[in-house]
Amino acid sequence: MYANSKKNVSTIEESVENYLEEVYKKIVQRDPHEDEFHQAVRIIFKSIKPALVKNPKYIRHNILEQIVEPERLITFRVPWVDDQGKTRVNRGYRVQFNSAIGPYKGGLRFHPTVNRSIVKFLGFQQIFKNALTGQPIGGGKGGADFDPKGKSDAEIMRFCQSFMTELASHIGPDVDVPAGDIGVGAREIGYMFGQYKKIRGSFEAGVLTGKGLNYGGSLARKEATGYGLIYFVNEMLKSKNERIQGKTIVVSGSGNVSIYAMEKAAELGGKVVACSDSDGFIYDENGIDVATVKQLKEVEKKRIHEYVNAHPNAVYKEDCTGIWEIPCEIALPCATQNELDEDAANLLCKNGVKYVAEGANMPCTPEALSVFLKNDVYYGPGKAANAGGVAVSSLEMGQNSSRMAWSFEEVDGRLQEIMRDIYHNCEASAQEYDKPGNLVVGANIAGFTKVADAMIELGVI
């Protein structure tokens, strides 16, 4: 009897494995050059297998083939005029991936690497990240292959206005609510909101999040992703009866997420010794002075190597990938996708890393992830660990709808509660599906089942 039971389970698992492989092959055949999207799908499929074994309704309703195909993918031309009077042209994107639990929600990225594959991978990840927050928001993403670096304010304004002219007819407070991402901060959001307001002839504050405080923005939004990352890490540490106080921390990047992760980590007693930008990294054995990094990056818009001018005891090294050579107990990759590979993961493990949490979207390659799991490094995936930004964006939407503004303390308190709930939901889901401690599996299953159940209930079959 027991042997037959084991055989039946094995047969079901094999059937699910074949189904996953069949769907994945269709995705690759349909869009063979979308490597980043394929990688994101592969990670999700590998994680959710136990959920499909336990809940055959997801296969019966063919949820996977639906969820991997965007409900809508918009591509458009963005012409703009530079300061020399020459017309330039970029390509813009908006992927509206899944609206089963709420309006599409996800950032806009302005960076030369942006293409169809990038926005699809980001939008696909956003479906499950948004579901984990517990807020009623679906998954979307967008951007353009435009590089704000080296552009004047006037050029950036003209680009943003042209971009929004094309995007405006596809978004709205109850339809699709973009926010910022790499290359899109408060300045860019302001220019785009101004253009949207002009086109619509009305003040629809909830159409964009990450806005300035003077026109409907939320306190704590700027800090949210970085602070939320540390709140999540804090829950990881507490589960092991440890504290962040006294821990040595390495944070890649020096943008918004990195800065506020460093700030909150230092506030809680952690010692951040390194951060980076795309040129190189700085190491300060006394602990990074966050105020200096803020001044350089947020005010003066300079490169990170300038840090050593104010702190001569610090060391600057070219090649940002070298940051993972620095021994630490906690590593927080906060720069960009696939920045931390197998070799870097092995080096971190050799140097004693115990916790890794993703501040960026998919910054660790699949090979790096395998290294961490094999070495019992407690690993927080981005869709859970960096969900603080979109969580507070949703709170900004709520404030806009009610015509109210909450205090910093109230927003921060709700953020802490959301990140605590995300961690415990991921942990509980991993436990339920016999993968205790595996937050990758826990996060992916918890996010997937919520969206998949909603799709079935809505009759999206």
UniProtKB/TrEMBL annotation:
Identify a single GO molecular function assigned to this protein.
glutamate dehydrogenase (NADP+) activity
Q: Give UniProt keywords alphabetically.
A: Oxidoreductase
Q: Which CDD domains match?
A: NAD_bind_2_Glu_DH
- A Pfam family name for this chain? ELFV_dehydrog_N
Q: Where is the Glutamate/phenylalanine/leucine/valine/L-tryptophan dehydrogenase C-terminal domain?
A: 218-459
What domain of life? Answer: Bacteria
List, alphabetically, the Gene3D superfamilies matched. Glutamate Dehydrogenase, chain A, domain 3 (1.10.285.10), Leucine Dehydrogenase, chain A, domain 1 (3.40.50.10860), NAD(P)-binding Rossmann-like Domain (3.40.50.720)
Q: How does it assemble?
A: Homohexamer.
**According to its UniProt record, which protein family does this protein belong to?**
Belongs to the Glu/Leu/Phe/Val dehydrogenases family.
Name of the protein described by the UniProt record = Glutamate dehydrogenase
- Which species is this record about? Tigheibacillus jepli
What's the name of its gene? gdhA
